[in-house]
Amino acid sequence: MTDFTKTREMFDIPAGMTYLNGNSLGPMPRACEASVVSFLNDEWKTELIKGWNTKNWFTQTNTIGDRVGKLIGAPTGTTVLGDTLSIKVFQAVAAGLAMVPDRRVILSDNGNFPTDLYMVEGLMKLKNDGYDLRTPDPLDVMDQINEDVAVVMLTEVDYRTGYKHDMTAVIAKAHSVGAVVVWDLAHSAGAIPVDVMAANADFAIGCTYKFLNGGPGSPAFIYVAERLHSSVEPALSGWFSHAAPFAFDLSYRPAKNIERLRIGTPSIAAFSLLSAALDIWDHVDMNDLRTRSIELCELFIREVEKRCKGVTLASPRDPYQRGSHVSFEFEHGFACMQALIAEKVIGDFRAPNIMRFGIAPLFNDEKDILRAVEKLEDILNNETWKEDRFRHRGLVT
Ligand SMILES: *Cc1c(COP(=O)(O)O)cnc(C)c1O
Fold first, then answer.
1. Would you call 210 a catalytic residue per the annotation?
2. Do residues 204 and 345 share a domain?
3. Are residues 218 and 250 in the same domain?
C-alpha cells in the first residue's frame, strides 16, 4: 500500500495553505532544491560544455522521458521530453495527418483546452489544403468517428469538468475506420492510471508541471507507439531529431526511433527539477492513487452539496467518469474563488463560471478537503464574495 502521509511529507507547501490546484501547477517537492543546486554546482558550473557527455544531458530527453512513460504504461524507448505541450500537439497532429493523407477531418471536442484547438488551427492554415476541425460536445465524439476522420485529437480528462473519455473505446472505434488518435494526457498523467499499451494508443502527449509536479515550465512529453517509429514524419525537424546531429549534414534525415520527436536543445535546468519530482512516484502505486483520489473527491462533493448553498456540481457524478479534479458552477465563481484564495484555500477559476479544485492524493488529505468545504460554506453564507477586493482579475486566473 502506498503511504500517502509519507508522500505528503515530500512536498514543501506553505504552512496554513490548503492547496487544491495541483492540477494546474503541482507544489514544490522538497528534493527539488538540492537537485537544482547540484545541477548548478556539480554540472553547469564545473563541467560546462562537457556536461552534455559527462552528465548525460544529451540523453535526458529519453532517460527522464522513460520515467514519465512508466507512469502512462509506455515501454522504454517510446517517450521523449522537451518543449511545451502546445508544441507537442502540433507535432503529434501533424504526424497523424501525414499518416492518413487522403482525409481532411480532425475531430476533437468543445471541451478541449483551447491551445490544443488553436495549434490545430495554425497547422491547418499552414497546410492550406482543405482541412476541417470538428468540435462536437464531448459525449457526441464517438458518433462522429467515421471514415472522413484522419485524426481524433482529445484531451482524456476535460480541463474544466473533469469528464473522462473512454480511451480504449475511442481508439478501438477510430482504428476500425482507419483514423489515428492523439491523446492529450495533461490532466491524466499522475492523476489517474493510464495504460497506453493496453489501450493501443498511437500518440500521447502531456505536460509535467501539473500532477507530475515538475515546476512551472517543466518540459512536455510525447509518446509514440513503437509500431509507428519508422514511419512517423517529424514536422518540426530540428537537429535533435536528426539521424546524426553531429554530422552537421546540410539536409535532414530523421533518427530511426523516438528521437525523431525531439526538436532542439532542451532545458537541462528544468530536467533537474523534474527528475527530483519523479522520484516521489517510486513510492506510489497508481491504483492506490486512484482509490484515494476517488475517496477524497467523493468526500468533497458530498460535503459541498450538503453544506454549500447555490453551487452546482459541474463534474460527472460517477467517479469512474471523472479524472482527479472536481468543479462546481457558481454564477459569481470568480469572486468566490478569490475569497477562498484570501482564506488560503487555493483552487482556480475557469470561465465562464467554474470553480475548479484539483485533488492530488500525493499531498492532499481529508483535512484539506474539510477545510476547503468549511471556508466555502462560510464565504457563501456570509456572501463574502461580494466584497470589492474580490473583483479584480489578474493576468492569469
Ligand atoms: C495545461 C494544458 C495545456 C498547456 O499547454 P502548454 O503549452 O504547456 O502551455 C495544453 N493542453 C491541455 C489539455 C492542458 O490541460
1. yes
2. no
3. yes
CB atoms within 10 A of CB 249: 12
Give me the residue label for grid cell 480541463: 159
pLDDT band for 331, please (50, 70, 90 cuts).
very high
Q: What are phi and psi of 205, to 5 degrees?
A: -135, 160
State the catalytic residue, choosing from 19, 113, 328, 390. 113
Is 288 catalytic? The answer is no
> What is the per-residue pLDDT across 44-83, written as a single tens digit (0 to 9) for each?
999 999 999 999 999 999 999 999 999 999 999 999 999 9
- Out of 25, 81, 113, 213, give the residue to mutate to test ligand 1, the one with the largest number of ligand atoms within 8 Å of its CB: 113
DSSP letters, 83-122, are S-HHHHHHHHHHHHHHHSTT--EEE--TTS-HHHHHHHHH
Q: Is the pLDDT of residue 324 over 90?
A: yes
Q: Which residues form the domain of 12?
A: 4-30+285-390
- Identify the CATH number of the domain in which residue 271 sits: 3.40.640.10
The answer to whether 113 is a known catalytic residue is: yes
Q: Are residues 274 and 310 located together in one domain of the fold?
A: no
Indicate if 317 belongs to the active site.
no
pLDDT in tens, 107-138: 999 999 999 999 999 999 999 999 999 999 99
Which of 207, 212, 263 for mutating ligand 1's site (highest number of atoms within 8 Å of CB)?
Answer: 207
